[in-house]
Amino acid sequence: MWSLQNIADKVHDWLYLTFNPTLAMLFEFVIIGALAIGLFAMLGLILIYMERKVSAWMQLRLGPNRVGPKGIFQTMADTLKLIVKEGMTPDGADKLLFHIAPFLVMIVAMVVLAPLMFAKGFQIWDINIGVFFITAVSSISVIGVLMAGWASNNKYSLLGAMRSGAQIVSYELSAGLSILAVIVLTGSLKLSDIIASQENGWWIFKGHLPVWIAFVIFIIAVTAETNRAPFDLAEAESELTAGFHTEYSGMKFALFFLAEYVNIFVVCALGATLFLGGWMPLHFGTNTQFNKVMDYIPSVVWFFGKTFFLIFVIMWFRWTFPRLRIDQLLHLEWKYLLPISMINLLLATLIAIMNWHF
Amino acid sequence: MTEEVVITDQDDLIINVGPQHPSTHGVLHLVITLNGETVKKVEPHLGYIHRSIEKMCESLTYRQFIYTTSRMDYLSSHINNHCCAMCVEKGLQVEVPPRAQVIRVLMDELTRLASHQLWWGALAMDVGALTPFFLAFREREMINDIMEETCGTRLTMNYMVPGGVMADIHPNFQRRVHEFLAHFKRKIDEYDELITDNIIFQNRTKGIGFISKEDAISYGMSGPSARGSGVQCDIRKLYPYEVYDKLQFKEIIESGGDCFARYMVRMKEMKQSMSIVEQLIDNIPEGDFQAKTKNVLKLPKGEFYSRVETARGELGVYIISEGGTTPYRIKFRSPGYSNLSALDHMTRGQKIGDMVAIMGTLDLVIPDIDR
Amino acid sequence: MTREELKIKITELFPTAGFEEGGDTSAAGWLNVQIEATAWLPLAEQLKQKPEFHFDYLFCVTGVDWKTHLSMVYHLTSTIHRHTIVIKSKLDRNNPEIESVAHIWRTAEFNEREAYEMFGIKFLHHPDLRLLILPEGWEGKNPMRKDFEDPVNMIRL
Fold first, then answer.
1. Whole-angstrom distance, CA of residue A33 vs CA of residue A169
2. Pick among 2.40.50.140, 3.40.50.150, 3.30.70.3400, 3.30.460.80: CATH of C3-97
3. Residue A146 belongs to some domain of the structure
């Protein structure tokens, strides 16, 4: 059957047969790099288009509909506009940090793509601490946000960056704890192991209450972590005009924008992997007829379907809810989500030890 | 009694909100002293779109000056025109025909509905929900279409003239108003589902921006903003004009004094306005739409004051006439100006995000303040 | 209180106060009181504090330029008794000064600032008498006075 794994294997074999191992590995690096950058750009284009269409659908509008059929080239036109736009640097800005910040945020967003499993056997780097790697690296992006806010020499930016710092640091905790709830059930941080453990059913179906709670907390926490409404206090356009990227223009602004969407993709892909089985088709039990039918759908479709469903949910939040206030945001985390997820982790551990899950 | 001005120490962060800022709905400039996220002082700087309408009016005739007032509170332009027309009619001692009176009230209430709809959308946008803005505009569009048919314009109507209204209503008017009412009755519940009952919205508005009844009176607040603090100040009830004394409607008073109370006043007022329109739409008396007036209006020497309830509060027009064709001095007592003066009192000690919500529930329209 | 009762009460307290007749505002039942600038502050305090007056709502504050003199007009109403009164005070055109009432009715603070920049009326003991609407550099220009001429944007009356 056609699958991305076959293609990857064929390319790999061909490279190692034709060239010597060092050169072949170098070529593989180049291909992977090009694919990662390509994916990054594609995700930006697709997700921005999707956001505009989803918001338009919820807001009785048509959304972009002029450039290309149904406006699919609108984001490309916008990107082109942003590329040719002059990048302004405010007077009194810390030049070095100001220029580094968007690249830092972007690089972090790209690096966390590495351990994601896009399809069966299709992964850049199957590291044995995959989930840990994603949570650890993705929290570096707050430094980029703080740098941008500080270096802009703008009070709105500074306020936005400080909010964002407080927000990401606190929501990291409950996001991490809710991920741990699944980790204790699977017993591995490796993404391929986690997906393999869901062969007889996704964790959301066989994990009972603790996984459901963890899933809800995870969705709330990652919405906050990616600075999306209703937790978009770092940007809060009605309060802080544009928050930490107030002073950015041109392509540097676009990098922040793209990084935001790629971050959403990463956290949703992680959520899909942990709770909804990643590329694993919908299975119930082992070796049933139903599972065989489901296997006919390619794994890449499963992965992207689940991920985009979660992205849609997060977009749905954004266009429905009002924004929280900064103190309410921190109350929600420290008084509710964190204690709940701690107790939930204990519950999950209990279930894992007693083997109560399916 | 006036609060002490905070002496700014070095730790304070002073930010300029506006004149171009998404939440000030216009060109209001606020200098905010912050302590971290907490607001210590708000100081408005006005005048970015001050056109000195009062001075301009001194050189315009009594027919002409009404047109400038549409540009004051552009969301209740009918009501502004109405107030000026009433003031001139007082001076001329002209009786307005009953048909014109009913049309005027109908237009006023439709304007009030449109204004409150826009306010609802803008407030939701201030607290971070973007979708309600579009829902509000869907309904407001219907009112604008009705206005366009009858008055010829959508925003600055200039429909009320001394002696009545400028033209008779469009033949479609009644049918389209009925359509609008049927549509909006369904949609106003959607408004409640989407925003009023939302837990985040309630947390953002309950207990925020409190102003007591005494302070609200002292600051000269009026309209829904003051009624949220329990002040009885609906001019339509206290000093009825046109046909308001014959209508069945309630003056909405909430005692909370916070943002949510002000929000609820406006939400309930929309229902009251709908009921007023319903009572009148099928009972427009036949007759003239305009009383006979001279071509050149001359007011006798003296002073004339008329007040109406706009969507934002009490609008007063004070004309001092020397007997000529132009007013000697004209003063517009605008509701927004007084409501804005209470902003500093209400925002002290609140968070910067609350300030935006408070400004949203005060429903400031900057041209009304700057005149 | 009716108009006549108010008139009697105010005459008792301030014998120097004059009363105006005619015009529309008096026909509507509003008492027009003419008072000297020096007597305004004590009168204002009485009007606010005395329970039978209880004028707590200052809804309109404006200055008028009569070419020979300026005058301040205050519209007051009571939210309990619902009676309305109009106080007018003549001011010298060259040196217009009147006591501020911002500590009695807080709305006066902003309205007095407007009258200050538009007419150049000085409000004594005002907490924060600065330009509010006009930009910097317009101190003392008083655009609402009848003899004001702006060389850039000419409006001739």
1. 30
2. 3.30.460.80
3. yes
Beta strands per DSSP E along B170-233: none
At residue A136, what are phi and psi to the nearest 5 degrees? -70, -50
Cα–Cα distance measured from residue B60 to residue B53, given in angstroms and rounded to the nearest whole number? 10
- Within 13 Å, how many C-alpha atoms sit on residue B94's CB side? 25
Give the C-alpha separation, C58 to C71, whole Å: 17
Cα–Cα dist A181/B35, whole Å? 40
B287, B290, B295, B298: CA torsion to nearest 10:
120
- Find where tokens 């509000």 sit: B136
- Cβ–Cβ of B47/C156 closer than 8 Å? no
Q: Which CATH homologous superfamily contains domain B47-370?
A: Cytochrome-c3 Hydrogenase, chain B (1.10.645.10)
Q: Is B6 on the interface with C (CB under 8 A)?
A: no
Does A61 lie at the interface with B, CB-CB under 8 angstroms? yes
Helix (H) / strand (E) containing C20: strand C18-20
Q: Where are the alpha helices (DSSP H) in chain A?
A: 4-18, 21-58, 74-84, 95-111, 130-138, 141-151, 155-186, 191-196, 203-206, 208-225, 237-240, 250-275, 289-295, 299-318, 326-331, 338-354
Question: In which domain, by residue range, is A184 found?
Answer: 89-354
Which of B352, B355, B359, B361 to mutate against chain A (most A CBs within 10 Å)?
A: B352
Per DSSP, the three-state class of B337 is helix
Partner-chain residue, chosen from A61, A240, A241, that has the shortest CB–CB distance to B134 = A61
pLDDT of residue B3 exceeding 50: no
Using CA atoms, how far apart are residues C99 and C106, in angstroms rounded to an integer?
Answer: 14
Q: Which of C51 and A343 is assigned the larger pLDDT?
A: A343
Whole-complex ipTM: 0.85
3-state secondary structure labels for all residues of A190-247: CHHHHHHCCCCCCHHHHCHHHHHHHHHHHHHHHHHHCCCCCCCCCCCHHHHCCHHHCC
Average pLDDT over residues C138-143: 80
| Residue ranges of domains in chain B | 47-370
Q: Which helix (H) or strand (E) holds C73?
A: strand C70-77
Cα B270 from Cα A81, distance rounded (Å) = 44
State the pLDDT confidence band at B9, using cuts at 50, 70 and 90: low
Total-model pTM: 0.86
Q: Sketch the domain layout of chain C as residue ranges.
A: 3-97
For C1-27, write each residue's pLDDT tens digit. 677 777 777 787 777 777 776 555 545
pLDDT number for residue C25? 53
Least Cα separation, residue B74 to chain A (angstroms): 22
Answer whether C65 touches B (CB < 8 Å): yes
